[in-house]
Amino acid sequence: MPLSQLDKQPALIVIDLQKGIVSLPLAHPTNEITSKAAQLADAFRDRGFPVVLVNVAGGAPGRTDQSHHFDPPADWADLVPELKEHPRDHKVTKMRWGAFHGTGLDEHLKNLNVTQVFVCGIATSIGVESTARYAHEHGYHVALVTDAMTDLDPVSHQHSVEKIFPRLGETTTTNEVLSSLNTNH
C-alpha cells in the first residue's frame, strides 16, 4: 500500500549504510541508495524530525550452519560520509539483524513520541526487513522507502518488497516521502 499519510511525529531509520556493506556487490547501485537515503535524512533533519543512523558491528551469538568468522577492516562499520551524520542524529550500533533488539531504540523513539518510522538501507531482506518487523510489532506505523534500499540478492530484495513489506506497513518512494514532507510541514 502506498504512503497514505505522514504522522505528526515520524522518524527516519537508515540501516547499515556503512563502508563495509556498501562495498559489497549489491542488486542496485550503492551510490543511488546512499544518495536517496541522504536526501531523506536531510529532509527529516530540516523539519526537526528524528533521524536514526544504524550500523552493524557483529552478529547474533546463536549457532548457525554458516560460519560467521569475519575479521573486518578498521573502518568497516563507519557510516558513509554522504549521510552527513549530525549531532542530533541518534546512532545505533547493533549486533543483530534488526535495529531494535538490545539497542534501546524503541525507548528512544517512544520518548520522542514517534508513531511512524520510515525505513531504508541495506540489506532489504536482512537488516531492513528485520527492523521493519520489530517496528511493526512495537506498534509503529511502518513505511518502507523501497527505492532507497537494496540487497545482496535481487530475488531476496523483490520478495521482501512485494510479499513481506505490504504485510508490515506501507511501501513508498523517496519522492513520495519528500513530497509529503513538503506538503505537510
From TrEMBL:
The UniProt keyword set, sorted, is:
Hydrolase
The record's GO molecular-function terms, alphabetically, read: hydrolase activity
Which SUPFAM superfamilies does the UniProt record give? Isochorismatase-like hydrolases (SSF52499)
A Pfam family recorded for this sequence: Isochorismatase
By its UniProt entry, which InterPro entries does this protein fall under?
Isochorismatase-like_dom, Isochorismatase-like_hydrls, Isochorismatase-like_sf
Domain of life where this protein originates: Bacteria
Domain Isochorismatase-like, chain residue ranges per copy: 11-176
- The protein's name is Hydrolase
Q: Which organism is it from?
A: Paraburkholderia phytofirmans OLGA172
Please spell out the taxonomic lineage of the organism that makes this protein: Bacteria, Pseudomonadati, Pseudomonadota, Betaproteobacteria, Burkholderiales
